[in-house]
Amino acid sequence: MKPSHMSVISIAVISSLAATQSVANNAASLKPTSTQASPNGTESNNQQIEDKMFEHITVSGSRLDKASSATGLALTLRQTPQSISVVDSEFIDAFSLETLADVMAFAPGIQTQQAETDRFFFRARGREISNFQFDGIPVVYNSFFSDAITDTILFDRVEIVRGATGLLTGAGEPSAAINLIRKRPTIEDAGYVSAQIGSWSNLRFELDQSLALNEEETIKGRFAASYEQGDSYIDLAEKENFLLYGVVSADLTDRTRVTVGLDHSERNPKASTWGALPLFYSDGTQADNLPVSQTTGTDWTKWAREGTNAFLQFEHAFENEWDIQVEVERRENEMDGELLYLYNAPDSATGLGLSNFPLRYLADRKQTAFRAMASGPFNLLGREHRLTTGVLYSKQDVISDSFYATNTIELDSLFGWDGSIERPIFGSTPATNNNTETQKGVYAAAQLNLHDRWTLIVGNRISSYELEGDNGNFDHSSVTTPYAGLVFDVDDNISIYTSYTEIFQAQNAKDVNGQRLDPVEGSNIEAGIKGDFLNEKLTASFAVYKVEEDNVAARDPINDQPLSDGTFASIGIEGAKTTGYEMELNGKPTDDITLYLSYTHNDAEDADGRHTLLTCPTICYE
């Protein structure tokens, strides 16, 4: 059977008049505490330390500016031997992208699926995306806890690394990692207030202000807030959301900086849906005559979320050009849902015949993450190279309570649905599920300058993964995930590269001896070319890739007797494979126009050559 084919096109053109805020106001850097010319006219040592410690993406020059999301090394995008894209604040503001899901809908190589009114899933290179980061610290993506609809008022930019990303993220799928870079105080005091009015009575207010908090300007703060409310093109659906964010950076010395931040958000939707509309009627005909506004929500269904997140960052630069960075992230989220799931096929004439499953679902998630890293130059064989090394720790606790209905509710016809369905009586004793996921890792990566034009990037990570839960416990330790890439600078503007990256995903399947199988191993091989053109006003890239998964659990064909725990023996086999190519063209060909263009094509098949995904092309024009 032929593999499935998927192509995604994303095109966007921004006029400079559309920008509602200067991108310079979002530069992620602070004003130096001391700027003094030395006798020979060069920058002072203090200024060099500032530049070393607090490198940031500038708004002029190449769009292939420095990002460390792929390797931990502060490389330009052209020096990074992997596909990486940056969606910056200029793009976010110009298109009024209010949530992370909005950003992902435009992001190169990402497929966004809205499952219900309040839940999203993302895919890249034929796999689901499970790896998110906040300022480089890995966190576990969970569609239930509003991660996808986080307000973009928080972010300066979003970095997307496609392919396997196990070096920095640990366990996950060989799809992509999404690194959310939060706003920091700006160089100069700046800010804005905005109000927006939209269709379906939508209102949105934003405030963003950065300012010095002391006379010496060694302590700076930035505060942002958003509030929105309104209806939807979907019948009955309403929203009311707000977010508050504050971050303070303090230069303790010319070499040391501490940054602390806190955000709190609440999302209160009404008439939330769970599950999809029926695809077929009971007579087998397609249910394609339902209106776009059709809903299965009621006047009592909801999917409310609340979250409070805090972070602490410590940075110090040494005289030998090495620096250290220590970060701690604490995230606490709650979810309160009263939902109604509809299934079966209705009658095409009456709209009757659907069955229902109501549920009240309460969940609490707590995440703690820690990262410590050191990076700097070293000399070997007459050349200067760079090294970064670090340790990471993350722990996630999720407690969920499911309350089932004690009575039966009757449904009206799907046609003319007005949501006036009787609210069920939910039981007082829940079915509780507890899960604790812990990851630990140590990694190192080096940028080796083999020649004036040849650069080798190598790295490795050793990880441990442990899951404790009501459905069983398992752990894997000493899992290695290597990284290797080679970059050749054709000239000062064009580079070609190739790379091999890995990632792992723990699994709880057992072999015939009752031993758990080793993790699924995901790998990504790619080659590409990246370049700057028109005096660095325009950048372009093209990549081809192959993604594979090995040791995927499958039923043991020889041993068909159940194990002592009632499960059946499994063996590890070669899994799914995706091949494809992608291209990007970004930049400012003129002073008035910013261009974002990308195209991605995937061929996905499983181990037997059967198609695994069929997605229609998506075209976006602005």
TrEMBL record:
<dbReference type="InterPro" id="IPR010105">
    <property type="entry name" value="TonB_sidphr_rcpt"/>
</dbReference>
<feature type="domain" description="TonB-dependent receptor-like beta-barrel">
    <location>
        <begin position="278"/>
        <end position="607"/>
    </location>
</feature>
<keyword id="KW-0998">Cell outer membrane</keyword>
<dbReference type="InterPro" id="IPR039426">
    <property type="entry name" value="TonB-dep_rcpt-like"/>
</dbReference>
<keyword id="KW-0472">Membrane</keyword>
<dbReference type="InterPro" id="IPR000531">
    <property type="entry name" value="Beta-barrel_TonB"/>
</dbReference>
<dbReference type="GO" id="GO:0015891">
    <property type="term" value="P:siderophore transport"/>
</dbReference>
<dbReference type="Pfam" id="PF00593">
    <property type="entry name" value="TonB_dep_Rec_b-barrel"/>
</dbReference>
<dbReference type="InterPro" id="IPR012910">
    <property type="entry name" value="Plug_dom"/>
</dbReference>
<dbReference type="InterPro" id="IPR036942">
    <property type="entry name" value="Beta-barrel_TonB_sf"/>
</dbReference>
<protein>
    <submittedName>
        <fullName>Outer membrane receptor for ferric siderophore</fullName>
    </submittedName>
</protein>
<dbReference type="GO" id="GO:0015344">
    <property type="term" value="F:siderophore uptake transmembrane transporter activity"/>
</dbReference>
<dbReference type="GO" id="GO:0009279">
    <property type="term" value="C:cell outer membrane"/>
</dbReference>
<keyword id="KW-0812">Transmembrane</keyword>
<keyword id="KW-0732">Signal</keyword>
<dbReference type="InterPro" id="IPR037066">
    <property type="entry name" value="Plug_dom_sf"/>
</dbReference>
<comment type="similarity">
    <text>Belongs to the TonB-dependent receptor family.</text>
</comment>
<dbReference type="Pfam" id="PF07715">
    <property type="entry name" value="Plug"/>
</dbReference>
<dbReference type="GO" id="GO:0038023">
    <property type="term" value="F:signaling receptor activity"/>
</dbReference>
<keyword id="KW-0798">TonB box</keyword>
<feature type="signal peptide">
    <location>
        <begin position="1"/>
        <end position="24"/>
    </location>
</feature>
<keyword id="KW-0675">Receptor</keyword>
<keyword id="KW-1134">Transmembrane beta strand</keyword>
<feature type="domain" description="TonB-dependent receptor plug">
    <location>
        <begin position="77"/>
        <end position="175"/>
    </location>
</feature>
<keyword id="KW-0813">Transport</keyword>
